[in-house]
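Researcher: Quick test of sequence recovery. Tokens follow.
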């Protein structure tokens, strides 16, 4: 998708900006204790896969608002719920579905939350992180229309903060979305160098969070892991976390396998509307499933032909079958050794 060109215009008054969800709380600048606000009307959200600089034309010249002032002027937040995920599992598609005027709005990977994680990694104090996270969530939850809920799909780099996020929002519900192990490994493999670099970056972040320790892989062995083993280790670490979150959060969370989402979209959406408390009837669900969102690639907007998703997944598995097969055996042995169940508890669908 092409980055849109926008002519610079004078900013509205800060009070006007903070009262409108059209102005996204895009970044947090800890050096100046300020939020960067960029104009992103609802219609623009529908045309882009993620709320990142590449797709937000105004991000180079944002309105910088002091944190305390911005929060004091912000409109009241809506009910907020979350789509947490372990990547490559149709999470962007699912977030796009929740662009439902009058009912809900889905936010796709707001960078503000990534900034808070990065700040934490650079040594920010826990109490300061919690305060900014709380206020950042409040700004992200400003509704586009009265009565709408906000459904936030963070980047999976945010997953270490899930306990804090759910603790700060005790009324929030969350879906824990994941791909099956073999499908996840195939997705990484068929993306080539960039997919392999991404999983190594994720591995480093999970290591910093202590999320790899339960797997029992000796640190001296890390450099000897292949790219697909690194991908499998990341999948296992996130799966282990999701398993623990189900125990801790109980009825506030459900889990869903992306394969089931695509095989049973109507049932999945009906169960999700119940989880999030949304007023979406069967006719509206049918319109969504047979409409344009399911018919195109959520990341690049390209049209899908019938059965293309399944063919692409099968191609990835076939092309890298030997490597994926061997790594899957290795990963399942680790899972068995440390008590990670491939089938997560609290399934969204029976």
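Model:
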């Amino acid at each position: 998708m092409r980055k849109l060109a926008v002519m610079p215009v004078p900013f509205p008054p800060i009070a006007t900006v903070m009262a409108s969800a059209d102005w996204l709380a895009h970044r947090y600048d800890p050096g100046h204790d300020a939020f960067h606000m960029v104009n992103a009307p609802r219609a623009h959200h529908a045309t882009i896969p993620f709320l990142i600089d590449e797709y937000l034309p105004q991000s180079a010249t944002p309105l910088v608002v002091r944190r305390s002032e911005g929060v004091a002027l912000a409109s009241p937040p809506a009910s907020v719920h979350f789509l947490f995920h372990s990547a490559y599992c149709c999470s962007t598609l699912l977030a796009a579905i929740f662009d439902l005027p009058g009912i809900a709005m889905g936010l796709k990977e707001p960078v503000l939350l990534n900034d808070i994680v990065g700040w934490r990694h650079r040594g920010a104090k826990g109490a300061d992180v919690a305060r900014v996270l709380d206020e950042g969530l409040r700004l992200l939850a400003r509704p586009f229309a009265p009565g709408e809920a906000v459904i936030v799909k963070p980047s999976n780099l945010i997953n270490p903060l899930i306990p804090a996020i759910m603790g700060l929002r005790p009324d929030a519900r969350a879906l824990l979305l994941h791909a099956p192990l073999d499908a996840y490994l195939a997705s990484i493999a068929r993306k080539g160098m960039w997919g392999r670099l991404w999983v190594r970056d994720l591995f480093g972040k999970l290591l910093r969070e202590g999320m790899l320790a339960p797997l029992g892989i000796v640190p001296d062995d890390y450099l000897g892991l292949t790219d697909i083993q690194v991908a499998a280790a990341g999948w296992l670490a996130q799966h282990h976390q999701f398993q623990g979150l189900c125990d801790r959060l109980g009825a506030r969370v459900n889990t869903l396998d992306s394969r089931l989402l695509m095989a049973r979209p109507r049932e999945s959406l009906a169960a999700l509307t119940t989880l999030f408390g949304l007023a979406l009837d069967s006719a509206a669900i049918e319109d969504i499933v047979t409409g344009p969102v399911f018919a195109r690639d959520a990341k690049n907007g390209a049209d899908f032909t019938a059965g293309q998703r399944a063919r692409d997944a099968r191609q990835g598995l076939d092309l890298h079958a030997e490597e994926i097969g061997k790594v899957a055996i290795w990963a399942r042995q680790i899972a068995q050794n440390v008590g990670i169940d491939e089938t997560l508890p609290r399934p969204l669908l029976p």
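The mean pLDDT is 92.
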